[in-house]
Amino acid sequence: MKEIITIKEYEKIWANKNFKIFIDKNKFKKLKDFIKANNLDNGLKFFKIYENCIIPQNFIGTINVDNISIEIFPKIPLRKGNKELEKERFLEILEYVETFNENIFEDLEIGTQNMPILEIFISNFVKEIKKIVKKGLVYSYTNKSENILYFKGKLDLTNHIKYNFIENKFFMNFDEFSVNSIENCLIKLGLEKVKYISTNIENKEIIYQLLVHFEEVDIIGLDPTVLFNKIIFNRKNDFYRKSLDLAKFFLLDESPYSIFFNDDRGVTGLFLPMETIYESYIANKLRQIINKKYSDKFSIRIQDNSHKVFDDCRHNGRKIDYKKNNITFFRLIPDIILESKNEIIILDTKWKELNNPEKNGKIYNYNISHEDIYQLITYIQIYQIKENKNCKRAYLIYPINNNEENSLKESILFKNSNLEIGVYFVDLSSEEKLNESLKSILNDI
């Protein structure tokens, strides 16, 4: 049975048993080597490494080191209660992130499973494949070129002369109705990968049982990226969709919303950057609400990258061709643009907790980053100029800490005659609460 250690973002993992959260020195070294080998401390900045401690940064996920699974949960609690409720809510949030389709986790009974997040992904993957096996694998015509004893399809004359100068065979090119469909190849590739990753006995048992049904599927030399680019869903294969979405997660390793590593050190890591997930979740929920109820008031743009701070760059008097040299000239990418008939309003999400001045000596800067405010002011100025439309308002959207009685919940506004910068808070504890929060923001602005 795997030991599960549960921590939050920014909590320290020690190599010293005198601390509450620790792993032995051998496992600590393995974890440190894994982080450095995959550039998770410098490039991706998922960890800070010190001599005797490792600090996970701004991500949620699971790290497996031998017989220990370290689970990292959000620093800002999504729900009051135990870790299973927290896990359940987190997976609900993932359904609104681009990498994961809506309802991808709908059949998962999280409350009855004491599994790390990675094993939950694997469990759902194999459950979806069980449904496929029960319904029957998709067959498709695949092109083959083989040296055979009889005519079938078209004679490949070049290879026939090359290989059959004396032999009594025919080198034929033909289509064969085969189990080697793109869908089945991707499923088998996914099963073969999770077979080595999973440490859950039940999951591993199901994986081996399922692989029996894919014995005839040939995956030697196949590139999953190429296969995913070829697949087209239709009525015939649509029941594969959920399983292939999850297969993509394991096989392609990385997206803006999830990064997956495993290596020969016996260490596996699933990393879900919380800032990016929160940003995508809020944006997609807002789009859903606006399309249903506020389409007459607002249109919405997400991750709009249509404007740059500067249009021209010169080096020693010589104009630089930004298109030819792939230069962005400080391209702006606000999280969310709301546009009405007469106005543009900018929204930016921030995965952090602000200070309540009632708890912090009545200091009313709320711990809002100066850089965040300057960024909003820049957005306002550039959009006002570039879009030739009134743009004087921008707002930050922060999560409410539901475990803190004095957590900030009410909006904060800073304004002068030319602009208004504000802060709104959203309740992430349930879909219903979040919808209420977002509707309240839309009504207020």
TrEMBL record:
Pfam families this protein is in? McrBC (PF10117)
Q: What is this protein called?
A: Restriction endonuclease
Say which species the protein is native to.
Fusobacterium nucleatum
The lineage, from the top, is: Bacteria, Fusobacteriati, Fusobacteriota, Fusobacteriia, Fusobacteriales
